TrEMBL record:
Residues 10-238 form the ABC transporter domain. GO terms for biological process: thiamine transmembrane transport. NCBIfam families: thiQ (TIGR01277). Keywords: ATP-binding, Cell inner membrane, Cell membrane, Membrane, Nucleotide-binding, Translocase, Transport. It comes from the Bacteria. InterPro entries: AAA+_ATPase, ABC_SmlMolc_Importer, ABC_transporter-like_ATP-bd, ABC_transporter-like_CS, P-loop_NTPase, Thiamine_ABC_ThiQ. Transmembrane segments: none annotated. This is Thiamine ABC transporter ATP-binding protein. SUPFAM superfamilies: P-loop containing nucleoside triphosphate hydrolases (SSF52540). GO terms for cellular component: membrane. PANTHER family: SPERMIDINE/PUTRESCINE IMPORT ATP-BINDING PROTEIN POTA, THIAMINE IMPORT ATP-BINDING PROTEIN THIQ.
Length: 242
């Protein structure tokens, strides 16, 4: 796949959302074609932030823009995003090819162009020869490759990864990060990635967004924020304060 999808800017303005007592307030902007890693303690609001962008949750107030589109009240399927979760991305009764093709046509009514896009995505994520396998015959890493291929054929400018590689071992996680890096270089999509590994942001040369208690406590380049001069709150999270 060599077509440049081209990313879109993701901007949340004064977005407020709460689950009971847990009040969250997001004001942030990720430029088009940037990779941003979202880190922070458990319960700080990382998944909620992605769910608001994807449309699985709706803000109580504030606005969300993706590119020039105000998507604050837009249903998830109509937003220009794809999302990959930690698990359960695939339908167990469908083979690799069909699981990916769902990204083009939810009823699997495929045109020749759709089939070509699916074939190309399968090759791009390194699954050629495994098209007819069902998810149960795939490793954890292969399953996530299928989910990424589905996102690729959707051709959306924003990719959301919610701890997508958390259940993989370290070497496989790095392989998947390298795949994202290569796909990003080809498509220039905007990537927002929730991770419990701040070093992932360094590996991807990404921006870092650090959440604490439902707000952005720090943001900037990963190498700056993770250096000695980074904010105290981040050092506490990293366990690097004296
Ligand atoms: N569906 C829900 N109903 C009620 N409260 C929720 C729901 N989902 C999340 N919460 C609460 O909202 C807060 C933020 O949750 P969220 O899942 O966004 O955090 P997170 O940073 O992704 O955490 P983790 O790293 O553990 O996945 C937490 O206090 C959580 O308990």
């Amino acid at each position: 796949m060599t077509d440049k999808t081209g990313g879109a800017k993701v901007a949340l303005e004064e977005v407020r959302f709460s689950y009971g007592e847990m009040r969250m307030h997001f004001d942030l902007s990720v430029p088009a074609a940037q990779i941003a890693a979202i880190i922070g303690p458990s319960g700080s609001g990382k998944s909620t932030l992605l769910n608001l962008i994807a449309g699985f949750e709706t803000p109580q107030s504030g606005t969300i823009h993706i590119g020039h589109m105000n998507v604050t009240r837009t249903p998830p399927a109509e937003r220009p995003v794809s999302m990959v979760f930690q698990e359960n991305n695939l339908f167990a009764h469908l083979d690799v090819e069909a699981n990916i093709a769902l990204g083009r046509s939810p009823k699997l009514k495929l045109t020749a162009a759709d089939r070509a896009a699916v074939e190309s995505a399968i090759a791009r994520v390194g699954l050629a020869g495994k098209e007819k396998r069902k998810p149960q015959a795939l490793s954890g890493g292969e399953k996530q490759r299928v989910a990424i291929a589905r996102a690729l054929v959707r051709n959306r400018p924003v990719l959301l990864l919610d701890e997508a590689f958390a259940s993989l071992g370290p070497a496989l996680r790095i392989q998947m990060l390298d795949l994202i890096k290569a796909l990003h270089a080809e498509t220039a999509m905007t990537v927002l990635m929730v991770t419990h590994h701040p070093e992932d942001a360094l590996h991807l040369d990404a921006a870092l967004i650090f959440l604490e208690n439902g707000v952005v406590a720090a943001s900037g380049s990963a190498s700056d924020l993770l250096s000695d001069k980074g904010p105290e709150a981040l050092k506490r999270y990293m366990g690097t304060t004296a």
